[in-house]
């Protein structure tokens, strides 16, 4: 609980209605979409303006209260767990779309804006914002920016990182920073915009953003390629890139994923196939048709046993929606679903799929694999049970080996989900001692009192829920502290 | 001069042949392509490996010797002037192209590699590296990365910033950092790659880089649109963007620039026109022809009085080469040529061109304007004489007002040249007090002893050559220290 004097100060900023520290509210903001992690905050606050955010941070800075910024909490890296207690700052009231500038092809908004709502508003003007994380119906643009979210269209269009042109942010001392602008080129000093993108709430609270838009493609067409050999599906991906074709979407699902997604979405997926690729291209009609024709040839030459071309855009959209539902569908199978985000150079995708299978067998755990094959970004997903510590241990060993293999292939521990708590123990594997040291020195310089989302990126201890499924655990949690062994 | 014990240590690292501190060498590395600035280093060293760079930096760190990293020295921001003496580290021996990976569409090279040579090597494999600074015949990839270089193709393809996927860098303590990789997606911690891109040698020495390549466009076509009204040319740019066409190049030249470039290049430019746009599109032939047709219509509707479509790619290339020669051509006019880099949101390009004219008249200075109109990135260029302090003062006042106007329009003080010394006094105008403070805290954290390119970005004092043309000044410089007034 916060001291009553601090409570009063915070209530003075936002009004009594927008500060909460009743048990139900604290529990509600003690977890996010990440399995296995939970910790209770001391308060929850809902600012409505940048000035309020600044005032809140000044109070927290003075009194050394941890500040955990949160949008929808849909992240999968434990990025918004209030590990050390403190104040959860919920940005969802700051959800205004401030401007769509069709002369400069930019949009400016408050960061609590919902991603899907933003997409719809942009597309109504004939423009397009490509990054489309699978959680876009619930997530916020601020969360996307804070964690560098990707999505299904990354292969052709890149991720959130590639679209943020400018930010407004409240720094740990409460000062307000403005970076970038409606500029496609800016070489004025260190790239603070890009430093904040993906910083996961550890350096600042992002309050406003300006992003780049592009013209909305006039035409799109999807197809599905079915394989009875997993390796042939992966080989197809390499062959598509080798032919210099960049579909807007090039998604991979293995057999267990197909089965589960079909049970959930009921759109006629080939549930007995070993693997499926869902491919979509957009652009002008001629180019799309030309690419589709070439894609068909490549799929068949690479070993596809069946091709289904979507007859309508709606039919194509259904396949992509089904793919987006993979996590939701898989999480119905067993009590706990842990989705990972290992990424390899795209030429290694076939090897990586096979390695995931080998590792799952080795540790005797159930891992489905799907993901953004064209980017080399796979989401191996374990169906497990948090109540079984022995099994969870095997799952953790399996994921550690998956990260190790990804890095050995020149890959990374996270392509688009961020580090948060979950990947903190593995960060040094990717960035090395010099990288960790440099990141820590930046963190210490900008947030000397360590109030911004403490325990993330460089976590030394963590709280975990074990022995319990999360849905059961909420409200009556057994937590335990344990050292993270940084390998 | 360096102490003899330090000299010996450095010579032990690279061998006697590759360390120089004779007067001719010191003078040769006392300046770069930026007018008005010169300062003598204490030594010049030419490493051939990352390990040598690390050993050199360790010596300099221990003995607090400034380290100024330099490629070809073609920058225009005073970025490689050894303001506080110290050791100039010349990277041109580290010029190996290590790999072109056509499966992952990446290239890896040592940073001293020449940009044009790199382009040619990449294009021989059927791939393409778009960033094409006008200095590419002489500049190095490391310089491009250190300053976030742009070029003529920025509108469609972005700048150097958008292509760097990974770096190897030697940090101020001599440790070797590796960031990123052959990965199109990476969310593992702070984006150190992007922090180093554009950091201008103030945080680390960049030794190796991995960049993204794209397929080489199969077809390209150029055209020239001629205007007897400057505003109509600028309006054309806005109209092209409004039609959602992104030519790979969309360059603007005003009448004085046209005249001078034609005298230099002799390719038949319309020297009596008020302005000219040089436009090029690339891609597959059908798309290019369709865009060209639409571009013709837009140019005519926006007030072009004449259109010339290049009959061959070579004819188009000639126009672009002529445009690239603008700085060289203009510098023949008067003893000193100062080229600036103000950038505005692309919708403001017409207003900005007019403002530059107004400001030139106000201060009675000769300013030509050309640049990357499609990006909002103009290069107003003053023809002046460094021997006339009164005129130089007026030029400086004019540029200060140009920066002020650019920022008032939502623009920036540099689009692609970097801050270095020249723009340091104006940086706070763009990034604000919070931005300067944040950049300084990053600098202090990573380079606590301030050995990496001191006096850049945050310069408090500067040495200037005045009263002298640079070609005369070399070797017999009158320098004077003066306070920079940070506005």
From TrEMBL, chains A, B:
<protein>
    <submittedName>
        <fullName>FAD linked oxidase domain protein</fullName>
    </submittedName>
</protein>
<comment type="similarity">
    <text>Belongs to the FAD-binding oxidoreductase/transferase type 4 family.</text>
</comment>
<dbReference type="InterPro" id="IPR016171">
    <property type="entry name" value="Vanillyl_alc_oxidase_C-sub2"/>
</dbReference>
<dbReference type="InterPro" id="IPR051914">
    <property type="entry name" value="FAD-linked_OxidoTrans_Type4"/>
</dbReference>
<dbReference type="InterPro" id="IPR006094">
    <property type="entry name" value="Oxid_FAD_bind_N"/>
</dbReference>
<dbReference type="Pfam" id="PF01565">
    <property type="entry name" value="FAD_binding_4"/>
</dbReference>
<dbReference type="GO" id="GO:0016491">
    <property type="term" value="F:oxidoreductase activity"/>
</dbReference>
<keyword id="KW-0274">FAD</keyword>
<keyword id="KW-0285">Flavoprotein</keyword>
<dbReference type="GO" id="GO:0071949">
    <property type="term" value="F:FAD binding"/>
</dbReference>
<dbReference type="InterPro" id="IPR016164">
    <property type="entry name" value="FAD-linked_Oxase-like_C"/>
</dbReference>
<dbReference type="InterPro" id="IPR004113">
    <property type="entry name" value="FAD-bd_oxidored_4_C"/>
</dbReference>
<dbReference type="InterPro" id="IPR036318">
    <property type="entry name" value="FAD-bd_PCMH-like_sf"/>
</dbReference>
<dbReference type="Pfam" id="PF02913">
    <property type="entry name" value="FAD-oxidase_C"/>
</dbReference>
<dbReference type="InterPro" id="IPR016169">
    <property type="entry name" value="FAD-bd_PCMH_sub2"/>
</dbReference>
<dbReference type="InterPro" id="IPR016166">
    <property type="entry name" value="FAD-bd_PCMH"/>
</dbReference>
<keyword id="KW-0560">Oxidoreductase</keyword>
<feature type="domain" description="FAD-binding PCMH-type">
    <location>
        <begin position="37"/>
        <end position="216"/>
    </location>
</feature>
């Amino acid at each position: 609980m916060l001291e009553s004097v601090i409570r009063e100060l915070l209530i003075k900023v936002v009004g009594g209605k927008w500060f909460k520290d009743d048990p139900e509210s604290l529990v509600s903001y003690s977890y996010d979409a990440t399995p296995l992690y939970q910790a209770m905050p001391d308060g929850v606050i809902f600012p409505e303006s940048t000035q309020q955010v600044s005032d809140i941070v000044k109070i927290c800075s003075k009194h050394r209260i941890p500040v955990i910024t949160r949008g929808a909490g849909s992240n999968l890296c434990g990025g918004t767990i209030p590990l050390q207690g403190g104040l959860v700052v919920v940005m969802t009231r700051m959800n205004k779309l401030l401007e769509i500038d069709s002369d400069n092809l930019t949009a400016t908004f408050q960061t609590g804006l919902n991603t899907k709502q933003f997409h719809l508003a942009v597309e109504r003007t004939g423009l397009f914002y490509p990054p489309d994380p699978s959680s876009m119906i619930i997530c916020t643009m601020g969360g996307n920016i804070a964690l560098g979210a990707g999505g299904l269209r990354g292969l052709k269009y890149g991720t959130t990182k590639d679209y943020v042109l400018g930010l407004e942010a409240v720094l740990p001392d409460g000062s307000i920073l403005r970076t970038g602008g409606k500029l496609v080129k800016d070489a004025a000093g260190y790239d603070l915009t890009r430093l904040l993108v993906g910083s996961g709430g550890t350096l600042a609270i992002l309050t406003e953003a300006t992003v780049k838009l592009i013209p909305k493609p006039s035409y799109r067409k999807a197809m599905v390629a079915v394989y009875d050999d997993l390796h042939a599906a992966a080989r197809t991906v390499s062959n598509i890139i080798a032919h210099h074709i960049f579909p807007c979407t090039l998604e991979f699902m293995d057999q267990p994923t197909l089965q589960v997604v079909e049970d959930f979405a009921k759109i006629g997926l080939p549930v007995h196939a070993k693997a499926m690729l869902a491919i979509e291209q957009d652009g002008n009609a001629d180019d799309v048709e030309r690419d589709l024709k070439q894609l068909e040839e490549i799929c068949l030459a690479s070993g596809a046993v069946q091709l289904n071309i979507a007859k309508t855009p709606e039919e194509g959209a259904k396949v992509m929606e089904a793919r987006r539902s993979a996590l939701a569908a898989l999480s119905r199978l067993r009590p706990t679903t842990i989705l990972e985000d290992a990424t390899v150079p795209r030429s290694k995708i076939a090897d990586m799929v096979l390695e995931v299978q080998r590792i799952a067998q080795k540790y005797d755990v159930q891992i489905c694999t799907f993901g953004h094959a064209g980017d080399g970004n796979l989401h191996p997903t374990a169906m497990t049970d948090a109540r079984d510590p022995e099994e969870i241990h095997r799952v953790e060993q399996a994921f550690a080996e998956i990260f190790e293999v990804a890095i050995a292939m020149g890959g990374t521990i996270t392509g688009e989900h961020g580090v948060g708590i979950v990947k903190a123990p593995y960060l040094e594997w990717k960035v090395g001692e010099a990288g960790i040291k440099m990141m820590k020195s930046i963190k210490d310089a900008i947030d000397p009192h360590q109030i911004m989302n403490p325990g993330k990126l460089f976590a030394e201890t963590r709280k975990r829920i074990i022995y319990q499924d999360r849905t059961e655990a909420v409200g009556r949690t057994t937590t335990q502290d344990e050292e993270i062994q940084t390998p």
